[in-house]
Input
Amino acid sequence: MSGDAIVVGAGVNGLVAATYLARAGRKVLVLEAKDRLGGACQTTWFASSFRGPAIAHALTALDPRVVAELKLARRGLKFAVRDMPLVALRADGKHLTNGRDLRATARNIAVHSRADAETWPRFRRELFELARRMRPLWWSDGKSEIPSEIARLRRLSLAAWLDSRFESDAVKAALAGDAASLSPLAPGSSLLLLWRAAQEMCGLQGAAAIPLGGPGALVDALTAAAKIAGVEFRSGAHVSDIRVKDGAASGVVLDSGDEIPANVVLASFSRAGLLATKAGRTALGFSESVALERGVSPAASAKVMLALNAPPAFNGVAVPLRGRFLLADRLETFVAAHAASRAGRVPQELVLEVVVPTAGDPELAPLGQHVVSIRIGPLPRHVAGGWDAAKTPLAAKAVAALDRCASGLARHVVAAQVLTPDDIAARYGAEDSCAVTVERLLSDWSSRIRTPIKGLFLCSAASEPVDAVSGRAGRIAATLALREGAAK
Output
């Protein structure tokens, strides 16, 4: 089987890229190494009767153009929760709920600092305005002018920025939760908060949403759109190399030894992952190879899903169960976690992001029971003794930390699924991704998607400014391929 175009990998970006190519009249074949489509964006069964999000448990950056142009709503994509407030959990019960209502959020902040409550509406408006001005760089494939204010932010750490505006640990830690890919002390880490504020979900800037049926519902909608466009799929097909002829991609080679010709290849690799292929090592050259290997992110994450026989009840002030919960008391919590991860140690104080998918979608669990999804990170990619030995202590530590804010939660756990960084890589094929850097955040799409091999384009999450479930890299990779005529 051959095609005008081959897309390697059937994750969100791969599905998006394939559909755009097919809609433009190209014959497209998608090759997926695993048995299921969607990569890490899946809804999985655990404990026999519970379902939960495999990795990503809330969507924050899904490309609005992809949703509209691929008609995903017509393909079945609906949302159980469209605008999740961020709830910064506090051990003293004075939780801080940051929602869309500026006045309500200011009242919540006033419990911690009256000065910060007065500052909040102005800061939020300024942040969102500047973020919208950055959208041409982060959302479109053309050349974009970067606002002059970014010259300061590209050198400014998130900690310094927040310290200059707020005095409360609660407020600063809540904001840092949306920029946790870098240490708050890292120069330019302030840009992560700006990138997050630029995103849009369900027509709302800076929103987080949960699809009805979990993240797998997004994959189902994308798969339906791809099949309607005429995309063909082949699972269990692991690509081991890219065929190159006269400096241009001419197809792929599978582990089985089979070769499949194509005029263009869109691969769900990071540039570092491309080094695993012979073609990549030859094309990138020694100096870029060394730079990419040094640029692999030292941080990883783990995932814990809990099955509860009762809803979690948080101590202290009332909080919305449909929220996105952050457990990290201070900026120093993030700083220490990044430092420990770089040193190969599990942080003494974990950074947790928690959602309760069943609060908006009760069909994910038996009647009256609930699913709690916990993302733990940053964590080291490798630990002394291996992650198998560290798995149970890590989960116990995460549950104990959450139980301090929701007394009795541990007693209601009837089952758990724990995925370490090693488990995630083995189960979902996640490769080492490129570290988030200022250069990556401010570079244009072409530099992250094009390769030295004509007709070979990259479209993984590592091609995004920040690793995220977006689909934007797939859309833009297909656009570049079609524009250059490589897929003809």
Remarks:
- The chain has a mean pLDDT of 92.
